[in-house]
Amino acid sequence: MPVQILLAQSTAARHERPALHTGQPAPPQSMSDSVPFLAKSVHVAARQTPWHTRLTQSPAPTQVAFVPQAEHVPPPQSAEVSAPFRIASTQVAGWQIPPEQLALTQSVAAPQREKSGQGAHCAPPQSLSLSKPFFRPSVQPGA
Questions:
Q1: What string of DSSP letters covers 45-111?
Q2: CA 125, CA 14: separation in Å to the nearest integer?
Q3: Residue 72 in contact with residue 79, Cβ under 8 Å?
Q4: pTM of the full predicted structure?
Q5: Which of 67, 75, 112, 130 is the right S-S partner for 79, CB 3.0 to 4.6 Å?
Q6: d(C-alpha 100, C-alpha 106), whole Å
């Protein structure tokens, strides 16, 4: 049975001594560097109002006068209009005997074998790998 290799902590890399960050040129990023924008924008359309216009219901369009659906031409779609089909179809294999359908019957029960346990499984179990451990490093292109 293969043995799992324990992982070990790599050796610590030596760090340089901590140092202060160098100064940043003014102003800080959180402060705007631009002058206030006081020039009015030129709008192509009319002046924009600083408040919201209340929503109103648009006027209802004129409805066409009520016209009931036209009466359906008989017969209804649920009724067949064809004459009964009484001509026998030509069968390639001849006539079907008997011409009426037989009632279905239950087949005779087949005797069951006496129950038994599942047979023994050939070793090793499927959860166990048969391959040898892969200890060769993979070659990585571009590394």
A1: SSPPPSSPPPP-PPPPPPPPPP-PPPPPPSSPTTS--SPP--SPPPPTT---SSSSPPPP-PPPPPP
A2: 48
A3: no
A4: 0.13
A5: 75
A6: 19
Tell me the per-residue pLDDT of 82-94, one tens digit each, with 9 for 90 and over: 777 777 767 666 6
Measured between its terminal Cα atoms, the distance across the chain in Å is 35
- pLDDT per position as a tens digit, 121-132: 777 777 777 777
Interatomic CA distance for residues 135 and 28, integer angstroms = 53
CA 49 to chain centre: 46
What is the distance between the alpha carbons of residues 132 and 1, in angstroms, rounded to a whole number?
10
Which structure tokens are listed for 101?
Answer: 């359908």
Encoding tokens for residue 77? 């779609």
